[in-house]
Design brief:
By secondary structure, the protein is an alpha+beta fold. The protein starts with 11 loop residues before the first strand and ends with a strand. The protein contains eight helices and 17 strands. Helices cover 22% and strands 31% of the residues. The chain is globular. The strands form four sheets. Strands 1, 2, 3, 4, 7, 10, 11 and 12 form an eight-stranded mixed sheet that branches. A five-stranded mixed sheet has the order 13-15-16-17-14. Helix 6 packs antiparallel against helix 7. It has three domains: 98 residues, 2-Layer Sandwich (Pseudouridine synthase); 134 residues, Pseudouridine synthase, CATH 3.30.2350.10; 66 residues, Archaeosine Trna-guanine Transglycosylase, Chain: A, domain 4, CATH 2.30.130.10.
Length: 329
């Protein structure tokens, strides 16, 4: 007999403003309990020190979380000069201190322009969540185990010095997926000759989602408390009013793939796709034929109700094959 999954069915994306001092998984589990959800996952961990945009996918939205993992990001960070730590951030042990000498805002701006613009090569920190033989690097690092970490190419679209305060500086960074802000700060510290670590890190945007759209755990709790009429404790018992109020905060799953071209299908094509069968696209000329791997993927929508069905791939001869569909009743 199949094991029944605990929790309710809820589909959508929560744009959470993660607080400092907790892991991404800790806050994920807290939100899962708050929503009473059967299934949830986040789209790219933030360090305990970091705050800001942590999209949490519930239910069917988890099928499209990879597109948020792969999305460009926007960060603001504060670098503390003169102090290096083992982890590259304020949570790590201090391993070296050097005087901050001959450092100016003009010098920082010049170094950013020379070394941190466009495509750059980074060596991820041993305290990152990258895995080696199935183990996260940070777990190995905490055991004192060092392994070779492969360098990677990332793209810095924009980097700007926001403020300079002698031994501290604030940076604004827009970058591709996989960019380690700690590595930027550590490398900049070495170029300045004094070392540096991240003391503050905040993610503002992730893909299509902007900072103004986020909700803090406190705001979500206030929504739940108001819906419950301050009668029962938050997260305990079944309360449809609370769930409805919280669900109204969620974005629909298709917003994770809003950047993909849309294709509408009729009732007959919809049924065929649901059964896993490819269909001939009536007007394939409207589908992008770019050469990159993602260009053939399209967002499938019903013609009658604009209901999101999922993702499909269109061949050069106009045949649409379902690839990742929403679960149907």
């Amino acid at each position: 007999m199949a094991r029944r999954r605990r929790g309710r069915t809820v589909d959508g994306i929560l744009l959470l403003d993660k607080p400092a001092g907790v892991s991404s998984n800790h806050i994920l589990q807290r939100m899962k309990r708050l929503y009473g959800a059967a299934k949830a996952g986040h789209t790219g961990a933030l360090d305990p020190l970091a705050t800001g945009m942590l999209p949490i996918c519930f239910g069917e939205a988890t099928k499209f979380s990879q597109y948020l993992l792969d999305a460009d990001k926007h960060y603001q960070t504060t670098a503390k000069l003169g102090i290096k730590t083992a982890s590259g951030d304020a949570d790590g042990d201090v391993i070296e201190e050097r005087p901050v000498e001959n450092v100016s805002a003009e010098k920082v701006v010049e170094l950013l322009k020379q070394h941190f613009n466009g495509e750059i090569t980074q060596t991820p920190s041993m305290y990152s969540a990258l895995k080696h033989n199935g183990q996260p690097l940070y777990k190995l690092a905490r055991k004192g185990i060092e392994v070779e970490v492969k360098k990677r190419q990332v793209m810095i679209y924009h980097i700007e010095l926001l403020d300079f305060r002698g031994d501290e500086l604030d940076l604004d960074v827009r970058c591709s997926k996989g960019t380690y802000i700690r590595s930027i700060v550590e490398d900049l510290g070495e170029l300045l000759g004094c070392g540096a670590h991240v003391s503050v890190l905040r993610r503002l945007d992730s893909g299509p989602y902007k900072a103004a759209m986020m909700k803090t755990p406190e705001q979500l709790q206030a929504i739940a408390d108001q819906a419950a009429g301050d009668i029962e404790p938050l997260g305990e018992g079944e309360n449809k009013g609370v769930h409805l109020a919280l669900d109204n905060v969620l974005l629909p799953p298709w917003t994770a793939v809003a950047h993909l071209p849309e294709l509408k299908v009729d009732d007959k094509q919809t049924q065929a796709l649901k059964n896993g069968r490819p269909v001939q696209v009536v007007d394939s000329s409207k589908v992008s034929k770019d050469t990159d791997a993602e260009s053939a993927l399209i967002r499938i929508v019903t013609a009658d109700q604009d209901r999101f069905l999922g993702l499909g791939e269109v061949s050069e001869d106009g045949v649409l094959t379902p690839r990742r569909l929403m679960k149907t009743q």
